[in-house]
Write a structure and sequence with these properties.
Elements: H1 2-16, E1 19-21, H2 22-32, E2 37-40, H3 47-55, E3 59-62, H4 66-80, E4 84-88, H5 92-107, E5 111-117, H6 120-124, H7 135-139, E6 145-148, H8 155-167, E7 173-179, H9 180-184, E8 186-188, H10 189-195, H11 210-222, E9 226-230, H12 232-236, H13 240-250, E10 254-256, H14 276-282, E11 285-289, E12 311-316, E13 330-333, H15 336-347, H16 356-377, H17 386-399, E14 404-408, H18 411-419, E15 428-429, H19 440-451, E16 455-460, H20 461-467, H21 471-476, E17 481-487, H22 516-522, E18 526-530, H23 533-546, E19 550-555
Parallel strand pairs: 2-3, 2-4, 4-5, 5-7, 6-7, 9-10, 9-11, 11-12, 12-13, 14-15, 14-16, 16-17, 17-19, 18-19
Antiparallel strand pairs: 1-8
Helix pairs in contact: 2-8, 4-5, 4-19, 11-15, 13-15, 17-18, 17-23
């Protein structure tokens, strides 16, 4: 059979000239558009595609689960402003990747989920093909755009459309469906090369209207207690110098959302991060840059925002974001880089800084809160609490500002977000808008691959469980990642008891005294078990110095956590008492 296929190919080549096929057209289209890294899980029908990609010079990283490969692709898009590529098998593999695709769309990360699929004529008649599923229809509601390519000559244009959709305007997730039969289709190599598309200006600038810029500036000029809120969209824009210039020239204090931390150092004199409650309640004009008034900011209303009337300036590339929760007095629609640059130009030389009393009030609150927290961060308690452990990691990040911090969990995330200062942009990567647990290992892997920088992944033990098997992937590719698992023996804490009695553990409790470090040792990495802040400091510093895959099992007091972290109010409570 193999000899017959080979002879057929020789005959076709002699008759029509050199041939190419769907496999190689996909690869050539990606390479033509400077996409060189693929995150995937091999299997039918894309196993050979991964092999050909690797042979063709692409870096192909294979994961243990598609969801984690998808999270890697999503954060790769955020870090590079090019769509991260996740390649999966059909049906179950596609579904596994779909959560990550929706996560990318929700967070405005450019990503393309490419999945093999069953043949259309069988799927459409529901004849029971292998892993039969109408994947395109399922993906459409969960992503920015979805396309299917049926003919080899359309591969170039299909991939071009997917890339442009992912990065233009508000970035997001795109689904690209490749039926198995497509990959084996052949065409003349010369015609195939002509069918490829090199994208020109995939994410064109969108300039704000001059009158919108002046309206925003006038509102800021009139403010007595102005505030700038920086969101992860501001970090994605990579307009770092202009954003810093805008803050410093305006003299307006700023509050960074978690993944915007480091756009300006958290220790900057205009940082209001340690006075969040004060500035949200007392500000009279708030300028949002790449942030949304969603649940993370209490929708711009309620007790979080206090009783003082507020007016909002909102910079966003998506017009429909305006007025989504509250009235926006000065909408500024355009890409962040262009909008910030226009504001800087419009400020001129006569700009007057906000009243000194407002700045002094914030600074006093910041200093008071930092001083009150300092002793808690320096404790050496055994077992560790979150403050003592995170105080150690805070010092390590301060000493290594180029390292990337990945962070997830409930209490682990909430405490770390407020305790660990960031000093450079796009160095803090976490769960994003949805608060998705399980992003940690995929995010850490992509961060190491895309940046070449060392990664410190700080994980709650529950969050780590969603993707912990990817430590084998970390070891396989010998990535400079140190994973610290805050092990308190359960979800939120390890002390709950089964209210019905019996031998079953409580629903939130894990195996007592689990040794996650042994998992890393099993795959050839370094495992370390620590019980004190001093031991934690030594272990993490050694790991960061070595660059070797390391997992530190950090024992945390089982009673240290709180229910649902800082968003316990979102947990509904029963008012019915059952005896």
């Amino acid at each position: 059979m193999g000899d017959t296929k080979a002879q057929t190919r020789v005959d076709e080549t002699q008759e029509f000239g050199a041939l190419t096929d769907g496999f190689h057209l996909v690869i050539d289209a990606l390479k033509l558009n400077d996409i060189n890294t693929i995150y995937n899980v091999p299997g039918i029908p894309i196993t050979d595609l991964g092999r050909y990609m690797q042979a063709g010079g692409l870096r192909v990283l294979s994961f243990r689960h598609e969801q984690n490969a998808g999270y890697a692709a999503a954060i790769a898009g955020y870090l590079t402003k090019k769509p991260g590529i996740c390649l999966t098998v059909s049906a179950p593999g596609f579904l596994n990747g779909l959560t990550a695709l929706a996560h990318a769309t929700t967070n405005c990360f450019p990503m393309i989920l490419i999945s093999g699929s069953s043949e259309r004529e069988i799927v459409d008649l529901q004849q029971g093909d292998y892993e039969e599923m109408d994947q395109l229809a399922i993906a459409k509601p969960l992503c920015k755009a979805a396309y299917r390519i049926l003919h080899a000559e359309d591969i170039g244009i299909g991939i071009a459309r997917a890339i442009r959709a992912a990065v233009s305007g508000r970035p997001g997730g795109v689904y690209l469906d490749l039926p198995a039969k497509l990959l084996g289709q052949t065409m003349e190599a010369e015609a195939g090369a002509r069918s490829l598309v090199k994208i020109i200006d995939a994410a064109p600038r969108q300039l704000p209207a001059p009158e919108a810029v002046e309206r925003a500036l006038e509102l800021l000029r009139s403010a007595k207690r102005p505030l700038i809120i920086l969101g992860k969209g501001a970090a994605y824009a990579q307009a770092d110098d202009d954003i810093r210039a805008l803050v410093e020239k305006s003299g307006i204090p700023y509050l960074p959302m978690s993944m915007a931390k480091g756009l300006l150092p958290d220790t900057h004199p205009l940082s209001a991060g340690a006075a969040r409650s004060l500035v949200l309640k007392e500000a009279d004009v708030v300028m949002m840059i790449g942030a949304r008034l969603n649940w993370l900011l209490s929708h711009g209303k309620g007790k979080t925002w206090g009783d003082r009337p507020k007016k909002f300036v909102h910079i966003d590339i998506e017009p429909r974001e305006m007025d989504s929760n509250v009235e926006i007095a000065a909408p500024l629609v355009g890409d962040i880089g262009s909008c910030v640059s226009a504001l800087l130009d419009g400020m001129g030389k006569g700009w007057v800084a906000p009243p000194a009393g407002w700045i002094d009030e914030i600074r006093a609150k910041v200093e008071s809160n930092v001083a009150r927290m300092a002793p808690r961060l320096q404790n050496n308690n055994v077992p560790m609490d979150y403050h003592g452990a995170l105080g150690v990691l805070r010092a390590i990040i301060t000493e290594r500002p180029d390292a990337i911090l990945v962070n997830e969990g409930a209490n682990t995330l909430d405490f770390a977000r407020s305790i660990i200062d960031m000093h450079q942009p796009r160095k803090r990567l976490d769960v994003g808008t949805w608060g998705v647990m399980g992003v940690g290992m995929g995010t850490a892997i992509a961060a190491a691959v895309e940046t070449g920088k060392p990664v410190l992944a700080v994980e709650g033990d529950s969050a780590f469980g969603f993707s912990g098997m990817e430590i084998e992937t970390i070891c396989r590719y010998n990535l400079p990642i140190c994973v610290v698992v805050f092990n308190n023996g359960g979800i939120y804490r390890g002390t709950d008891v089964n209210p019905a009695g019996g031998s079953d553990a409580a629903t939130t409790v894990f195996v007592k005294d689990a040794r996650y470090d042994k998992m890393m040792e099993a795959f050839g990495g370094v495992g370390v078990h620590v019980t004190s802040p001093d031991e934690l400091s030594r272990a993490v510093n050694a790991a960061m110095d070595s660059g070797k895959p390391t997992l530190v099992n950090a024992v945390i007091d089982a009673e240290a956590g709180t229910e649902s972290g800082r968003i316990g109010n979102l947990n509904p409570q029963s008012v019915v008492s059952k005896k």
